[in-house]
Records
---
Amino acid sequence: MPQDGRRISPATVETIAGLTAGLASTIIVHPLDIIKTRMQLDTSPNPLLNSSRSVAHDILRNEGPTRIRALYRGLSPNLLGNASGWALYFLWYKQGQDLVRSLRAYPQNKALTNVDYLLASAGAGALSAVLTNPIWVVKTRMISTSSATEGAYPSMIAGIRSIWRTEGIRGFFHGLIPALFGVSHGALYFLAYENLKIWQRAKRQDQQLSNMDTAIASALSKVFAGTITYPSQVVRSRLQRYDPGAKIITANPGFIRVTTDLWRNESILGFYKGLGPNLARVVPSTCVTFLVYENTRWALPRLFNEDSTDTKTVL
């Protein structure tokens, strides 16, 4: 411990690790997030007509003022949402595990069960979803429109002001119901991730996991959870969209209406529009997130010369 008596708390470690991981992963894959959202909002009955390649080509050719600006439109709310979302999620996920362990009176060396992991991750996900939903509304509206479109939000602050002025507080919570359904994504992800890490440690006879082990576990878990829960993302995007050229903001159609219209007009394939670029975005993003997270949470206590029982992800 440092001579000045400073000590970094476990909660601070989790928050900083999650914040750092969210920032790094968002910057890397933001362009794919734009393509995915544009595909989710396409209402044509044939999803093949609006492929990820055609969407990307259209953005690069028609939007600007530069290609880089076009590909990174809406980055500020995406950075804020992901960084704060991951920071809060990891903080509450760790606290949720501690709470479950305390309520069940587990000894320190007893592993949590699958149900325990589900409860901790679902609770963390629900709290994070509610607090970050306003940011996601602004992000969705920014990346779903070109900056040249009349009425499009020129910045995150402008978007917040516009929503407050025209829709009130309720405008910030469009898509919250499917977002809460999407909490199951985090629960399924962490269930798979924790079990894969246990399996990998057993194979290595409790030796330290490598970065490759972490990347494989996070990638497989993301594909598993992402494919199962993806339809909720499509519904949420459609609830959060808006027409920037509209003179009057119409009432939100509602979760049930959007879901039934999607099924009636676009069939089951409509619920999976943008899945390809989504997996191409979230799998490397998740790998980066958890590599940064695992290594940051290992390194921070050692920067303060503290002993840590955390298993290091080997560099």
---
Amino acid sequence: MRRWAGEGATLRGDRRVTGLAFAAVLQFLLMAAALGAYAYGRHLADGRPERAYEHARAVWGLERSLFLPDESSLQKGALRWDGWVRAANEYYVRVHFPAITAFMVWVYFWRRRAWPRVRAVILGSAAAALLVHFAYPLAPPRMLPGHGFVDLMTAYGPSAYATEPGQGITNQFAAMPSLHVGWALLIAWGVIRYARGRWRWLAAAHPVVTLLVVVLTANHYWLDGVAGSAIVVAALWATSRIPALDDRDRGRAGASARRDSVGA
């Protein structure tokens, strides 16, 4: 009898592991398909360079009317020492997708209760950004003539883009919004919210560094970062209003409620 009970427990354990593995693979395929569709959608939105340059001039003028720092002046000042450029380009090219992927893996396996909300925020922000790419093509600062920008990825490498606009699968006219900044903010929010220990506050540096990198390398305007952050903040707010995406630690909440009732 004991042997049969042990075999039954082992079988149930094996089925549970198989079920968890199947669920993880399913989630991986879902997110890979969704982000792949987002990347391909960005490519399809690449087709109106005249509008992209017109919008670039409009964004530049709006930033100056808002007294935002001049990106070209900042880049010129930073280039007095160009030792940072290669590292900044590497950060721009190599960190964005690996960081959001590592964040998703961490949330899914170690903060499972938060996964439905994080997934919804990532998918919702990607969908909103894609709509903006179609509605508002925008040439990045490095492609804006007459303002003295240096295309640092071309000059120093590595580059995330083809030599000429329209080549390759990456849309160079999709500067608005910057999900580099938006998803960096999401990562910082998630780590600070769900992790434990004082070290988690270091994550707040990620969106700050990302914003500086995308601006100083002339890949984005300030307002691109603002727009990307606003989309993520709006998605976080929207998901906080949906009970099915409640990501609070109910165990701790329940324990606190029981302590309060005992104290009363």
---
Amino acid sequence: MMLVFDILLRKMVKTLTISLIKKYWKRQKGQKTLPECQSVIYEWSKFFRSGHFGFSIIKNDYNQNDVIDKKKIKEQPIVKVDYSKFEKRINLISTPTLEGVWSDGTYKVGIIKTVDGYSGFIINADKTSWTPNQLKFLINNNKEKADLWMKDFSKRENQKVDIIGNNLINIGNVLYLKRLSRTYEDTQEIKDYIKFLYAGNKSYFQILSGKTAYIRIPAFDLDYKKQIDSAIAANSANIEKTENLIIDVRYNDGGADTSYEKLIPFLYTNPIRTVGLQHLSTPLNNEVMLGLSKNENFDEEHQKAYEEAYETLNNNLGKFVSLSDEIVKVKKLDKVLPFPKNIAILINNGNASTTEQFLLAAKQSKKVKLFGTTTSGALHISNMSDVVSPDGNFELRYGRSKSYRIPEMAIDDKCIQPDYYLDNSITNKQWMEYVRKIMEE
């Protein structure tokens, strides 16, 4: 029976693959520009791997405006509006609406109410092919979804709209608009939310109440390790005397494992088991290890370890190589801190890679609960590298290692689940206060 099932499965996979090849072979014939080529290759590759993969245009002398389909520019819808009258009218609106003048730094747009919803039209867009009054996006009447036209006039439909207070709009995590006129006062809750989640890549700490402290870690990139360590060190005394701790890693899409080392002592209750991985040894891949051995963000101990790893990999070219004698490493600390007693970690689908590795470690603690939504699911194939195509037009980003967790503890495409699911009736802006009340009550 199993043999029959295996044969049927292989035939199905073969049929699907052939169908996919035919589909994209037909599509690629009509592609004439770099963006069109990049789009087809990216979509084709995503069939095989959804996370920890990238394919982008990097050619230095490439000017997107020179190759945009002129027909698309000509056919782009126009919003008929007298801008001078529009500007005078919005300055008289006392109650906040979406109508107003907004900007993301590249596009200055006006938003006006129309029959179809809220039309975002171009006011000014220097160094692009966009011209005044062209329709940039259309937000539907319930203000939840939008159709958005990208820089090259390609259309993205049904993009999620997140209205943040009175003066910020996030469309599809692509277009972040700040209101220019007229602006309105936000509540303290909104101000805090913006301060926590939209303050760039700098770590942030705050005492929320006598029982709860909060720390925001927006990224685990190696370049940010020093400032993460500094933020934790500067506030460790407060953390160690506070009953509850909220660690906010929403939209933190990873970086380097060493960047979260200083958080582990606060959540530690019992030995933490970490399943190892194997590196694919090739001359190109191994050069990364050599570079890490000279990276000043690491101390001498880490640099030496990377140098030894480089030598081991070079002695085993063409193989998957484990850099440790142990498939599973067990981390033991000398003590369990009495405070914080309870730790909540805020997570969402913006979490991937190293952040998911951190969550797997944190979940083993008796102190920790995860609050939010499922993560992205990009961890099995890891340790990212990039390489430029022979013609110099594109850059490929790919993973150099695979986890021993596969297939028993699959994360990719399955994601890490929260212990407490925060459904849509609890807005992103309310998460922190909602979780604080749960911990304190």
